[in-house]
Amino acid sequence: MSGGSDVAQSAPAGTPVSAPSAPVAAARGPHASRSTSLVDLGAVSHGSTPRQPARPGGAWQTILSCLVPCAAILGGCATPSNAFVHSPLSRCEEVSGQTGRVRVATFNIRAGLSSDLETIAETLAALDADVIALQEVDVGVARTGRVDQARTLAERLGYDFVFAGAMKREGGDYGVALLSRLPIEAARRIPLVAGGAFEPRVAIDATVCAGSERLRVVAVHVDFLPWAAAANARTLAEALDSEPGEPTVVAGDLNMGPGEEAPSIFTRRGFVDVVGRFDEGPTFEGGQRLDYVLVDPSLASDAGPAMREESTASDHFPVIADLSLPGTNASR
Predict the structure, then answer these.
(1) What pTM was estimated for this model as a whole?
(2) Cα dist. 256→75, 228, 282, 319, 324 in Å?
């Protein structure tokens, strides 16, 4: 951001955006009220995203045989979105005080189509989470009244936010968001490339300030087609491997059950499925557990409790996990 103005960031894919090197005011409270403007809107209409059944066999194989050519067509016609917007950034060195346990949540909100945005906001507020990864977020999309859902939810909660568009949809952008009541120091958009995917996919890689300590939180939503989901997850894991650093949390909808390839790509790297450690129940109305909070080994030993929060606000349940960062006061 130049000159301290609140403008949308349209950086090249994968380019990190960090707080300026010049000293800035310490950020103890939220900045979401200092609004930003979304750019690069377009108009492409798509149907609702299908969901992966619990057991990919029998009729599901027949459905897949039909979806493969459809995915190739839609994947080729769907216009990727480069939209990337966030609240003003902070520098963790400028943030005073200590933050104890950090609560991270993830919630696929289905663009509020299962309820309404106010119900989504109330559900999020009840989680009392410090950082929330959101999937299926509409910004300026006709089907949801052209509301900027990322900004609206952030302002409703008093949080900072990041939004990354995955694709154009009905005159707006559709993608993932990250809401944080902790100051955000840096953020980048990571396109998740996968041949034959049903839709373009994207992740947000952000660094938040837990007191003067840093926590890397990644918000992600992978494709529902198994091979594309695995390719998306592999792209993300390799992007994170290329820039190792702070304690890392991957939170989002991986569209596969525990032990399947998308989550396994992370667990083979040492990430721990915190929610699965405490609550193995389904997170999707179809009966599957698709939503994860995965933490790297530096956070795993003292992670938890974690749980699903049953809700009718979406076709997914939100899930939360309490984490303790090395070097912070562990009391919440």
Answers:
(1) 0.79
(2) 20, 11, 11, 15, 27
